[in-house]
Amino acid sequence: MKKRISECWKKLKFAHKIGIAAITAVIVCAFIFLGRSDCPSCMTPLFTAGIADGTLLNRISLRLDQEGVKHQIGQNGMIYVREKEDARRMVTVLLREDLVPSTASPWDVFKMDRWNTTDFERNVNLRRALTENLEQHIESLDDIVRARVTLVIPEKQLFTEDQNKVSASIIITPRDGSDITSDRKKIDGIVKLVKFAVEGLDDENITISDNTGTLLNDCCMFGGFDRIELTRQEMQIKAMQEKKLRSQIITALNTIYGGDRVQIINLDLDMDITSRTVSTEEKSKTASAGGEIENKTNIYEEKSPWTIRRICAAVAIDGTWRCEYGKDGRILRNPDGSAVRTYTPVSDAEIQQAKTLVEHAVGFSQNRGDSVTVQCVKFDRSRQFAEEDFPQVSEEKDDMLPFLSLDRNDLFFYCAVGFALLSLILVIFLCARGISGRKGSGVRIVNARNLAMERPEEVADLIKSMLAEE
Questions:
Q1: Number of H helices and number of E strands within the chain?
Q2: 190 CB-contact burial (10 Å; exposed 0-12 / middle 13-18 / buried 19+)
Q3: From residue 193, how far is each of 100, 137, 142, 168, 286 by CA, in Å?
Q4: pLDDT tens figures, 378-393
Q5: 3-class DSSP state for residue 396?
Q6: How distant is the alpha carbon of residue 301 from its chain centre?
Q7: Which of 212-226, 263-277, 344-358, 395-409 bottoms out in mean pLDDT, i.e. has the lowest?
Q8: Which of 145, 171, 457, 460 is most solvent-facing, going by the fewest CB within 10 Å?
Q9: Are 341 and 320 in contact (CB under 8 A)?
Q10: Per-residue pLDDT for 66 more than 70?
Q11: CB-based burial of residue 315 (10 Å sphere; 0-12 exposed, 13-18 middle, 19+ buried)?
Q12: Among candidates 374, 365, 372, which has minimal Cα distance to 345?
């Protein structure tokens, strides 16, 4: 086998040998790259110190998976990610969500080296390193294009009352379409990041503003953030209650009319989301030597944080369709091949019964001014009828869905594999053609020699005529 392979290799042309060597080198390099890209030594550590708490380690790993950051967990609880930008961004996210180990120091989180220099040089280097690391971590956020950090770290004084406080000023440039200027949680995340990095820094000494000069961590502005957060929670409660009522309506009508014949057109709740404390007074009498004594007791009761003021619901119910049959028992067809169907609307009595069911499902109250409307509406079923009348066309479309649903990465992978296979087939074809061409030329030389030995005169005449023509 080895001898045959060596003979085939010797018979190949120089260009063919170069092509095979190039393809082999590309494949080997690809395997080496894939093997080295996931090794811990080629990745960036999330923290320079390991995490001993297994529960916290699992929570951090889950948070990295949610952000789509590929990572590996090494020995002693070390976490490695592929890119430095991902490490900076995730450190900021983990600080915002209080997922950084309590035993970690800023040296471990911001990956800074300790210096053995004079005190002055150390302080200067510390301030410069903190500033650069903070800017890199803040800029790693998706909501920020650029960040500029200014730290003021005064010299330590002998007496506490003479000590000036550490302060920080951060100017950020939000990305277009970002909501960081109105999201208190994200602003608090930046505050936590800066406090964690700078020792002795308090919230009141941190100033965060955008590139237009608007102060983002002002206490008055936080009150506006609280109102926005309260409004968001109110909308969530309203959406949850509406979803619950929709489920109750669908459950009440689906068992009678079927899921494809019932459609909730509109469902709106007018809710009062405020907590109330109701005070009631109870009176009791007790007998005594001087007569009866009247006692009063005040009872304070915390009511539900939200109440429904009014419910408005609109429900549409479709009628039934029935195919028409001929005398021979076959379905009648239109000129285009579709079946002939007859529509039967829902009767008024059934509409009234459905309305009663919907009212009971949503807790209808006339005192609140609730409104429930149920009507018969003819639904558009052209697509359903087309699938029933022409099933072959629908199956062909379904067969194409797997190819149409491929994303860009899958298409690129399949194209690369196809290109590699075509290149390999082309090289094999050229090699085989070169070998067969050499064999064919050898056979022709042998045939010409035999012909010259058998008929030398004819061969001589043929050569003379060819020379005369030239």
A1: 13, 13
A2: buried
A3: 10, 9, 16, 12, 64
A4: 888 888 888 888 876 5
A5: helix
A6: 45
A7: 395-409
A8: 457
A9: no
A10: yes
A11: buried
A12: 374
Q: Does the global pTM surpass 0.70? A: no
> CA-CA distance, 172 to 213, in Å (whole number)?
10
How many Å apart are CA 298 and CA 294, to the nearest integer? 13
Closest CA to 224 of 138, 305, 210, 232: 232
What's 450's DSSP letter?
H
Output phi, psi for 25, to 5 deg. -65, -40
Q: Which residues contact 330 (CB under 8 A, 6 or more apart)?
A: none
| Distance between CA atoms of residues 225 and 183, nearest Å | 7
- Please enumerate in sequence order all residues whose Cβ is within 8 A of that of 195, keeping only pairs 6 or more positions apart, or say none: 201, 202, 203, 206
- Strand partners of residue 71: 81
Alpha carbons within 13 A on the beta-carbon side of 116: 0
Report the percentage of the chain scoring pLDDT > 70.
66
Among residues 389, 395, 394, 360, which one has the least CA distance to residue 374? 360
Contacts 24+ apart (CB under 8 A), 35-41: 37/82, 38/72, 40/72, 40/74, 40/78, 40/80
Token representation of residue 167: 């302060």
- Could you give the CA distance from residue 249 to residue 362 in angstroms, rounded to a whole number? 7
Angle CA 37–64–405, to nearest 5: 75
Contact 96, 189 (CB under 8 A): yes
